[in-house]
């Protein structure tokens, strides 16, 4: 049986002045100030030095039981607002609806709505599907969404987002960022919608109707690189005369010698350098690879770089500055626990006037291009293409071939890198065009 309240106008007893001046009882016990119809202000002494708290409550009876509904905290909930909420609760009770249960169901519904916004689903997708990706990939993916997508559709319920809304978002990205970034972001959005569909929070993927809608740039991503002997000689001489920091100059010189990715070089650790064996050994955790492979850190997948005499000489100089530290290339004076910035080499190249012509990653393309072009006096290749690819740590995408071709080519790569270093010395010393290696190193 429901005890329905009398909904005629109540005779209210409290005033704003009385509510504001209300205090607990002199002995510290709570004070209840009745306003009428079961609504009252519960005033109690604060704890741990806090000020006394004032709470609006509504006592009512339903199904023969007394219950209390919390209406809010004063002064956030004013006397007028407390009365309005009290009237709403009384109206619910008159229809046989328990106000406390109704409030809880409404909160749950709002919570569920919040969890089904595009941003909420996307962040859940981050955790489920980006955890095994590289840090660079995770950062790039999340930053694009946080900067270019969430501000516009992040708070929208994922079930209500239309293709027209997505068109506006993607067109905005295409005008600001090049290299088909807008297509990749659209693909990410599609993955999020498909995840929402799989988890029962969406009924369709609106990106499906946009397939082919946006224009793609015809591109093959190549990092700018100097690839002719004359250009390379000019670059090497510029490095020799670069008035930059010591670590920057050493990083530039080593970049030309070892064919590593910028991050692999900049984050070099002294524990990886074996001067006696003349090798630099990088574990797979620092190489470009799937996160599942990195986590296993299979020692068979480590990359051994034979060091030329020129590279060893640079490490000897570096040891005088950072020997005994973890990283070869130290960060700023206040940040020696981290290596210097990965952007250092690119910034140095721009300062030397090679913007748009050469990048830190371009040293790999420079070496690969020239090494593949090298011919002996009889016109035969001087270096096995597989040895060059192994030095670059490129994966063989031919699954069958890669299963059988596990050669390390260490001896040939040692000859190749020493000859390459000698060749760079030759280019540095002449303004003319040097076409080939004269002989392999012995």
TrEMBL record:
Belongs to the 'phage' integrase family. The keyword DNA-binding applies. GO terms for biological process: DNA integration; DNA recombination. One of its GO terms (molecular function) is DNA binding. Residues 13-32 have a biased composition (Basic and acidic residues). Residues 222-417 form the Tyr recombinase domain. This is Integrase arm-type DNA-binding domain-containing protein. InterPro entries: CB (IPR044068), DNA_brk_join_enz (IPR011010), Integrase-like_cat_sf (IPR013762), Integrase_catalytic (IPR002104), Integrase_DNA-bd_sf (IPR038488), Integrase_DNA_bind_dom (IPR025166), Integrase_recombinase_N (IPR010998), Phage_int_M (IPR053876). PANTHER family: PROPHAGE INTEGRASE (PTHR30629), PROPHAGE INTEGRASE INTS-RELATED (PTHR30629:SF2). Residues 116-197 form the Core-binding (CB) domain. SUPFAM superfamilies: DNA breaking-rejoining enzymes (SSF56349). Keywords: DNA integration, DNA recombination, DNA-binding. It comes from Thiothrix unzii. Residues 12-39 are annotated as: Disordered. Pfam families: Arm-DNA-bind_3, Phage_int_M, Phage_integrase.
């Amino acid at each position: 049986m429901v005890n329905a309240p009398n909904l005629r106008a109540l005779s209210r007893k409290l005033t704003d002045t009385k509510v504001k001046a209300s205090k607990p009882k002199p002995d510290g016990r709570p004070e209840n100030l009745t306003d009428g119809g079961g609504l009252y202000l519960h005033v109690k002494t604060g704890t741990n030095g806090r000020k006394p708290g004032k709470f609006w409550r509504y006592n009512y009876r339903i199904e023969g039981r007394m219950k209390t509904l919390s209406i809010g905290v004063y002064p956030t909930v004013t006397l007028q607002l407390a009365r309005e909420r009290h009237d709403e609760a009384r109206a619910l009770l008159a229809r046989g609806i328990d106000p406390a249960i109704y409030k809880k169901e409404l909160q749950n519904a709002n919570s569920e709505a919040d969890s089904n916004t595009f941003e909420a689903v996307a962040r859940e997708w981050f955790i489920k599907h980006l955890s095994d990706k590289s840090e660079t990939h995770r950062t790039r993916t999340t930053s694009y969404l946080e900067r270019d997508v969430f501000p516009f559709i992040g708070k929208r319920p994922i079930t209500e987002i239309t293709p027209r809304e997505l068109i506006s978002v993607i067109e905005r990205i295409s005008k600001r960022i090049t290299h088909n970034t807008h297509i990749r972001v659209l693909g990410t959005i599609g993955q999020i919608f498909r995840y929402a569909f799989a988890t029962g929070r969406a009924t369709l993927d609106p990106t499906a109707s946009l397939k082919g809608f946006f224009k793609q740039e015809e591109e093959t991503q190549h990092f700018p690189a100097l690839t002719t002997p004359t250009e390379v000689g000019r670059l090497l001489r510029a490095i020799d005369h670069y008035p930059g920091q010591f670590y920057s100059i050493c990083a530039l010189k080593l970049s030309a010698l070892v064919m590593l990715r910028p991050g692999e070089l900049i984050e070099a650790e002294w524990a990886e350098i074996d001067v006696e064996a003349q090798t630099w050994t990088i574990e797979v955790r620092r190489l470009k690879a799937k996160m599942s492979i990195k986590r296993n850190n299979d020692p068979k997948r480590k990359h051994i770089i034979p060091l030329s005499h020129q590279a060893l000489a640079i490490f000897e100089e570096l040891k005088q500055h950072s020997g005994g530290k973890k990283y070869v290339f130290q960060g700023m004076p206040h940040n020696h626990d981290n290596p210097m910035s990965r952007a250092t080499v690119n910034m140095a190249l721009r300062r030397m006037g090679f913007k748009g012509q050469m990048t830190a990653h371009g040293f790999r393309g420079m070496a690969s291009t020239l090494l593949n072009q090298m011919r002996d006096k009889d016109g035969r290749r001087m270096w096995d293409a597989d040895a060059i690819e192994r030095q670059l740590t490129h994966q063989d995408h031919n699954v069958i071939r890669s299963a059988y071709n596990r050669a390390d080519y260490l001896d040939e790569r040692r000859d190749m890198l020493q000859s390459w270093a000698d060749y760079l010395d030759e280019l540095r010393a002449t303004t003319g065009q040097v076409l080939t290696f004269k002989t392999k190193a012995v």
